[in-house]
Amino acid sequence: MLSPATLALLAGAPFALAAVKADAAGKLPTLGWNSWNAFSCNVDAEKVMTAANEVVNLGLKDAGYEYINIDDCWSIKDGRDETTHQIRPDLTKFPDGISGTADKIHALGLKIGIYSSAGTKTCAGYPASIGFEDVDAATFAAWGIDYLKYDNCYVPSNWTDPYEACVSEGTDPTLANGTCLVTNTTAPPDYDWSTSNTAERYRIMGDALKAQSRTILYSLCEWGHASVQHWGSSVAPTWRMSGDITAEWPRIMIHVNMNSFLMNYNDHWSHSDADMLEVGNGALTEEENRSHFALWAAMKSPLVIGTALDKLSEVNLAILKNKYLLAFNQDDVHGKPAAPYKWGVNPDWTFNATNPAEYWSGASSNGVLVLALNSLATTAKREIKWSEVPQLERGASYQVEDIWTGKKLGCVKDGISKNVVSHDTIGFLVGNKCGKPPGRW
Ligand code: GAL
Fold it and tell me: Does position 189 have pLDDT exceeding 90, yes or no?
């Protein structure tokens, strides 16, 4: 029982109260599945339930994957219910409504996510939430929704920002060094983007979600605009840092390159989302799928599978279930991601979307994760030297495990040098120093 003095203190301390989290949703990067990369607008209850059942059957639930997220195109396109102003589920796609699908997903011990936009329409042109945040948040809560991805399409003119943030996707040659293209609408250097219309649009929905009596994990999808890394985590635990991923190697490298400059913003409750996974899609090779997943896990991006799980190969399933990478991504004690310690092909801190940072390391509860990517088009040697890894000591020997084979390599002195196939990533968990008692980490 709190004393009247404590209650009075709490009443006058909204910030202290706001910092108290009702549950752990959002502390760690989201693990789940989303319909968009697999099916785009062709989403329906059958596909969503197939994914949910496969998450259970394939052991992905046991590995930690939890959220089954419906993306764009789930509602009736021509508008809201005239009386209740609610968005109406498309019953031809979801015969039991979204709440019926939610019940089935919950019965599997999983959680369900939905999608809307901070504009008048979703990106595919369906009703969206600006001006209806309270109605929509209450509706989602009533349906049993656990997660909301909130997109950035159809922003009304009175809600746009007067300035542009520095956006460098790495596809524009004028941005090759990561410098901004300065125009007469570029924000002044001291502009506080947390006061922007974009931040406000996202904050309004965040407040509406917080007012509900169930936890709805909030996921910002404003594509890395409006300098979201500076204010995103004050609004939601996870924020997209870029435009859309595709199942193509060059695009995956664009995301790695951009996100490699954002690792300082990542921690528990604050996740730079490199976009949903493409493992299993398109013509990505086994090596490319491995690198994609390893880098996303190491960057502590949310890991949201985006493929048809009933068609997933054994090889790709094993990648998605890699226990070393999942443990690193989901570390309850260490919130900080891995970070590049050396660029490799390019000098350190080069903004280059073809050959981004290749050498990454990060501390975890189980040891130091070290990755080395070969971004070149041919096989090349990659040399991990303990002396260059910030968490390790020059001249020391460590117990090492290969994260792909699970093989214990025993005591390894100085480092590891290997020929790496084009677009592949080697990875090691570097544990106790040899000769030291266990528990160093
Ligand atoms: C994009 C978003 C994608 C997907 C799509 C749906 O804006 O970045 O992830 O949600 O809209 O139309």
Answer: no
What is the distance in A from the centroid of ligand 1 to the CA of 136?
19
Ranges 47-61, 88-102, 152-166, 287-301: which has the least confidence: 152-166
Ligand 1 centroid from CA 48, angstroms: 17
Nearest CA to ligand 1 atom 1: 123
Inter-residue contact 43 to 93 (CB < 8 Å): yes
Which pLDDT does position 166 carry in this prediction?
A: 65
Closest CA to 58 of 283, 290, 313: 313
Q: What's phi and psi for 208, nearest 5 deg?
A: -65, -40
Measuring CA to CA, how many Å separate 135 from each of 153, 184, 214, 351? Answer: 19, 38, 15, 43
* Atom 12 of ligand 1: nearest residue by CA position: 123
Q: Which of 36, 43, 239 to mutate to test the pocket of ligand 1 (most atoms within 8 A of CB)?
A: 36
Q: Closest residue (by CA) to atom 11 of ligand 1?
A: 123
Q: What is the pTM of this model?
A: 0.92
